[in-house]
Write a structure and sequence with these properties.
Strand content: 15-25%
Number of helices: 15
Number of domains: 2
Number of strands: 16
Structural class: alpha+beta
Radius of gyration: 31 Å
Helix content: 40-55%
Length: 454
């Protein structure tokens, strides 16, 4: 056994024998898959930048206001009281990720992950523009410092710093909204010095990640690459090398692979896809485009590297779809439908009615029994609501503190009221009762509690 065989993949691709960092100089990809990924990435970037500015009936499309424990997702408001719904949505999301990975592999990483999109579609494109392709960049980095090198490095890193600051402020838009951020920017730095320091710290982190740490986020930090080791199976659709067609490789061998290593040169994480599924592979399809270009030049069919499963390659299946993939896709649609249904089927308000602690019932001269209740109503809509409360389980009279129950949009109403029920209608020391909350004489929510009597 050779030394190469003994040391095969006993360390990360971007480390040498001594554990030092090996920089990946990836060749600029081109081809139909890269074009598709670029178009998709621009849509994702537009959504990332534009979503906080989108309004639905004058209200935010998405707002994650952690400070005030208010979340707006697709125009629907979630409060701290909606923990159960948020937990169900999170559980649905986790199940979606698991099934999606089992079915389609790590395609999220190469196509939709913000880390990949910003690195490959923003920072690397700027780097290609200023420093050139991989050979020129390697020569520039390994060569001595010259005026040309200094200008290129200063220009590149200045642009990187500006983009990092813009990224941070765009990121803050999701948590503060455009109005909140613009108000913050207009104020003197001295009034928000701690917030300014946090913004600089986050921008510096982004700059460090995309300028220096780069693909190591995917290969060393992100747990998703390691998760796929237990989630993928022989029928998962991933970027695959057709070893049955390609081996034995070499220009003078019978396999279609000519061992040109172009698939390695274009890989942003520096792996050899021909070695099979590896945690560093982000399914970015750069190797597919490069291999198809080589196959075309040697007059051989495209698709030596393609989206396929181990089962498909082994059995020569032409279609990547199977009964299992279709079944999982149906489950994914059902889970996503549940997510959407939960978003839009929540009640417009949330009511809590509890007897005032420490107070017992009171017997009145008119042969009625009264209890004191505290009421709290959260308005989850963007409209001001005028509400009424009625006892719908018994005959009773409600005396509310204050003249009206008006709840402003995205706000809370709190008050106290007395409930009077005729003594003859009280059959036990704890009677179950039910209230109805009405808006424009329409019942929109009910709440059950107890009434204490003699």
């Amino acid at each position: 056994m050779s030394e190469k065989d003994i040391s095969f993949r006993d360390r990360p691709i971007n480390m040498d024998e001594k554990g030092a960092r090996k920089w990946v100089y990836a060749k600029k990809p081109k081809g139909k898959w890269y074009t598709r990924r670029t178009i998709f990435s621009w849509f994702v970037l537009l959504f990332f930048i534009g979503a906080p500015f989108i309004k639905i009936n004058g209200n935010p499309f998405i707002l994650l206001d952690i400070a005030h424990r208010k979340f707006i997702i697709f125009g629907a408001i979630f409060w701290a009281q909606d923990t159960f719904i948020l937990a169900m949505l999170m559980l649905s999301f986790v199940i979606f990720i698991v099934l999606f990975t089992v079915t389609f592999g790590r395609i999220w990483c190469g196509w939709a992950c913000p880390q990949t999109i910003f690195l490959e579609m923003v920072f690397r494109k700027i780097e290609y523009l200023i420093e050139g392709d991989y050979k020129k960049r390697y020569k520039l980095d390994s060569g001595p410092w010259t005026t040309e090198k200094g200008i290129k490095k200063i220009t590149k890193h200045t642009i990187f710093i500006v983009i990092s600051i813009v990224m941070t402020n765009t990121f803050l838009l999701w948590f503060m909204g455009p109005e909140g951020l613009f108000e913050l920017v207009k104020d003197p730095i001295s009034e928000h010095f701690s917030g300014f320091i946090i913004m600089i710290a986050i921008s510096s982190f982004f700059y460090w990640v995309y300028s220096f740490f780069r693909e190591q986020i995917c290969t060393m930090v992100c747990p998703y690459g390691r998760m796929q080791g237990v989630l993928l199976d022989s029928k998962s659709i991933v970027v695959s090398y057709d070893y049955k067609r390609g081996e034995p490789r070499g220009t003078k061998q019978t396999g279609d692979c000519i061992d040109c290593r172009q698939c390695v040169s274009v890989c942003p994480t520096g792996i050899d896809i021909r070695n099979g599924i590896q945690l560093e592979c982000i399914n970015c399809t750069a190797c597919i485009d490069q291999c198809n270009t080589v196959m075309k030049s040697v007059k051989k069919p495209a698709g030596l590297i393609r989206f396929d499963s181990e089962y498909g390659i082994q059995n020569g299946n032409k279609s990547i779809w199977s009964t299992r993939n279709r079944a999982y896709s149906v489950v994914l649609v059902i889970i996503f439908s549940f997510f959407v249904y939960t978003l839009f089927s929540r009640p417009a308000i949330e009511t809590t009615i509890l007897r005032t602690p420490g107070l017992l019932y009171q017997q009145n001269d008119d042969n009625t029994i009264s209890n004191v209740y505290n009421i709290k109503i959260v308005n989850k809509t963007h409209d001001e609501m005028k509400l009424d409360i009625k006892l719908i389980s018994h005959d009773g009279i409600i005396s509310m503190a204050g003249n009206s129950m008006t709840v402003k949009d995205q706000n809370m109403f709190e008050s106290t009221f007395l409930l009077f029920i005729a003594e003859e209608n009280i059959k036990s020391d704890k009677t179950k009762i039910e209230f109805g909350i009405y808006s424009n004489n329409e019942l929109i929510e009910t709440f059950k509690t107890t009434f204490v009597g003699p």
